[in-house]
């Protein structure tokens, strides 16, 4: 009897699987954006990350002591010979040029003090 129930259950499942079901309703078409393609020039910009090294070793040595008031050039820019690079704090440089030892060193170097007008 168990085998008859098993066979009957198998055929019932088989018959249910073979039945034709109603086809699924079709999905609506998706919404898309349409645009017209026009040829145009695209700028070619190349950027690289690199490190550079100078062709010459240059030592920058201060001729006078003092504090920097401002840097007179943008970093990374090319500079020309004789171009102003730094400006010193004038209040400190005036005080140092009026001390007693400064007069002796100026006279040894042949430098005359600047007169105020």
Describe this structure in words.
By secondary structure, this protein is mainly alpha-helical. It is about 30% helix and about 5% strand. It has a domain at about 60-110. The relative contact order is 0.07. The model has no long low-confidence stretch (mean pLDDT about 75).
Please write out the topology.
Elements lengths: L1 H17 L49 E4 L14 E3 L1 H8 L2 H10 L8
Antiparallel strand pairs: 1-2
- Largest sheet, strands/sense/barrel: 2 strands, antiparallel
- As laid out across the biggest beta sheet, the strand order is 1-2
Helix content: 25-40%
- Give the CA-based shape: elongated
Low-confidence stretches: none
First-residue to last-residue Cα separation? 132 Å
Mean pLDDT, all residues: 76
The percentage of residues in β strands lies in 5-15%
Q: How do the helices and strands follow one another from N- to C-terminus?
A: HEEHH
Task: Give keywords.
single chain; 117 residues; mainly alpha; two-stranded antiparallel ribbon; 30% helix
Could you provide a short overview of the structure?
By secondary structure, this protein is mainly α. It has helices at 2-18, 90-97, 100-109; strands at residues 68-71, 86-88. It is built from three helices and two strands, in the order H-E-E-H-H.
């Amino acid at each position: 009897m168990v085998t008859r129930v098993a066979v009957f259950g198998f055929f019932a499942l088989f018959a249910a699987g073979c039945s034709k079901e109603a086809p699924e309703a079709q999905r609506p078409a998706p919404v898309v954006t349409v645009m017209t393609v026009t040829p145009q020039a695209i700028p070619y910009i190349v950027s690289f990350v690199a490190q550079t090294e100078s062709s010459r070793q240059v030592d920058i040595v201060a001729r006078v002591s003092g504090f920097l008031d401002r840097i007179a050039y943008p970093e990374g820019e090319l500079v020309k010979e004789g171009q102003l690079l730094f400006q010193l704090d004038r209040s400190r440089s005036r005080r140092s040029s009026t001390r007693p030892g400064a007069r002796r060193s100026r006279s040894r170097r042949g430098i005359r003090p600047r007169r105020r007008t």
